[in-house]
């Protein structure tokens, strides 16, 4: 197994553990909404500390239900994943293209050297033929 495959397997195992461990240990079971977002947790903590607190800003858009809010969040995550996938795919494609270009240049240089070497040998034979071969037929 290559080093990259080991690293990828370890990362995949880590991601799976991050998803399964909270569910397996029942983290958040004591709460009304066990896996509520950080915004809700912060709001609860602030109202416990200072019940008269008034927010500085209000949201630009308040979704009518939790399901729509979840759908918008999922859409945002999907768009972000798409942008990242596009970037990394583009980067990998460019790297592969550069590698192919280098390989072709090396092949072309090797072929050009072979032609030059063969051409030099032919030129030497031509020069020998015109100068005479020394076999008495001059």
From TrEMBL:
Protein name as annotated: Cobalt transport protein CbiN
Residues crossing the lipid bilayer are 71-90
Q: What's an example of a GO molecular-function annotation for this chain? A: cobalt ion transmembrane transporter activity
Q: Which organism is it from?
A: Streptomyces gancidicus BKS 13-15
Q: How does it sit in the membrane?
A: Multi-pass membrane protein
Query: Which biological process terms from the Gene Ontology are attached to this UniProt entry?
Result: cobalamin biosynthetic process
Q: What segments bear the compositional bias annotation Low complexity?
A: 108-130
Q: Where is the composition biased (Basic and acidic residues)?
A: 97-107
Q: What does this protein do?
A: Part of the energy-coupling factor (ECF) transporter complex CbiMNOQ involved in cobalt import.
This protein's GO CC annotations: plasma membrane
Q: Which residues lie in coiled coils? A: none
Q: Where is this region: Disordered?
A: 97-138
Q: What's the gene?
A: cbiN
Q: Where in the cell is it found?
A: Cell membrane
The entry describes its oligomerization and partners as: Forms an energy-coupling factor (ECF) transporter complex composed of an ATP-binding protein (A component, CbiO), a transmembrane protein (T component, CbiQ) and 2 possible substrate-capture proteins (S components, CbiM and CbiN) of unknown stoichimetry.
Annotated metabolic or biological route of this protein:
Cofactor biosynthesis; adenosylcobalamin biosynthesis
Keywords, alphabetical = Cell membrane, Cobalamin biosynthesis, Cobalt, Cobalt transport, Ion transport, Membrane, Transmembrane, Transmembrane helix, Transport
Q: Which family does it belong to?
A: Belongs to the CbiN family.
């Amino acid at each position: 197994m290559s080093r990259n495959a080991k690293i990828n397997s370890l990362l995949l195992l880590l991601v799976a553990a991050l998803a399964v461990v909270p569910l397996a240990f029942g983290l958040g079971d004591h709460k009304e909404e066990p896996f509520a977002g950080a915004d809700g947790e912060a709001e609860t903590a602030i109202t416990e500390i200072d019940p008269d607190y008034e927010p500085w800003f209000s949201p630009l858009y308040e979704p009518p239900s939790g399901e729509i809010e979840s759908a918008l969040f999922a859409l945002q995550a999907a768009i972000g994943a798409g942008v990242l996938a596009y970037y990394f795919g583009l980067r990998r494609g460019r790297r592969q293209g550069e590698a192919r270009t280098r390989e072709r240049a090396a092949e072309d240089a090797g072929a050009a050297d072979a032609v030059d070497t063969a051409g030099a040998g032919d030129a030497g034979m031509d020069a020998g033929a015109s100068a005479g071969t020394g076999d008495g037929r001059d």
